Amino acid sequence: MIPEGSPPSAERHRTAAAALAQAERIAREASSGRPSRDGTAGGPDRAEPDPRDVRGRRQSARTRRNPAADNGPDGQPGPEADPQSVARDIVLRKLTAQQRSRSELAKALKERDVPDDAAGEVLDRMEDVGLVDDTAFAESWVRSRQSRRGLSRRALRQELVQKGVDRDDIDDALSAVTPEDEVAAATALAQKKLRAMAGLERDVKYRRLAGALARRGFSAGLTSQVLASVLED
User: Fold this and answer.
1) Where is this region: Disordered (predicted)?
2) Are 17 and 114 found together in one domain?
3) What is the pLDDT of residues 126-137, one digit of tens each?
4) Which of 132, 155, 189 is the last residue of a domain?
5) Which range of residues forms the domain containing residue 208?
6) pTM of the predicted model as reported, rounded to 2 decimal places
7) CA distance 90 to 188
């Protein structure tokens, strides 16, 4: 059975991604000699800037913090953009928003024309620090989709395949969904749909409920079992 009350791994990933993004920013500031935002010197002492240069320095800082600022007019990375910095920025933004599979992230990088070698190195690094983890992603996806949408194992498998998760990780994640879980999910869905069918003939109710369960991926055998019980009540 899928455990209830487990900590939301998506939230942990967002927090970890944000922390790594901050660490990467501090590292870039240190290497450039700029003070970090907490006031700690990031390099050798430097003279106070001429006030006339403040605007230019602010623009430069924004560019360093946002590698996408190096993009050309079509939104693609410009010739001066470091491919790994661009890739890292894209990946961290997406992971901060929500947990994603490695395949989804690789696709996003390819759409931004990040070179394959740079994309691979960045994704490998993210896997090393645990921010990209298809095993954890699959488990979180199954837990969320099964509890919130009442999807069948078949439907969950199809979704994870579409997200590029490999078979072993999918099998491990789906092992948490028991036959009892599927019966409970199908029953809850049928009962919910049935409440909007008052006054309809039993055959009409059966066809509509069977269609709703089929769209969630439930087998014909399980559908017959559940509807026999639900329509008797």
Assistant:
1) 1-113
2) yes
3) 999 999 999 999
4) 132
5) 178-233
6) 0.67
7) 39
